[in-house]
Amino acid sequence: MNASNDNTAANGLGGWWADPPRSGMQRLINPIVYRHLRVFGVIHMAGGSVAAGAGLICLAYRAYGWAAFFLALGAANLAGGYWYLTIDRTTSAPT
Predict the structure, then answer these.
(1) For 29, which DSSP code?
(2) CA-closest candidate to residue 88, choices 39, 17, 46, 43
(3) Hey, what's the torsion of the CAs at 36, 42, 44, 50, to 10 degrees?
(4) Residue 6 in 3-state DSSP?
(5) Which helix (H) or strand (E) is 49 found in, with range?
(6) Residues 28-44: pLDDT tens digits?
(7) pTM as predicted
(8) Which of 3, 22, 25, 78 is 20 to 30 A from 11, comparing alpha carbons?
(9) How far apart are CA 78 and CA 69, in angstroms?
């Protein structure tokens, strides 16, 4: 019952966050998201496109404050999605 556990990922939050191993800015990405980067990248790109579309609609109705909000939100989501897809492309490249 009290046998030693060789699971290195079970070392609390720090151990969980470090699995899978990654370096630099990639450590900011949640491990669950990091395991499925392509899916989350495409979701971010789609959400950013919808938010940018909402911003353009707000611009058409001269709601400039809401337009700025939705365009900034769309730009952030598009940038995040592009970043995820770039990381996925570089890590899954055949060597």
Answers:
(1) S
(2) 39
(3) -160
(4) coil
(5) helix 37-60
(6) 787 888 888 999 999 99
(7) 0.76
(8) 25
(9) 14
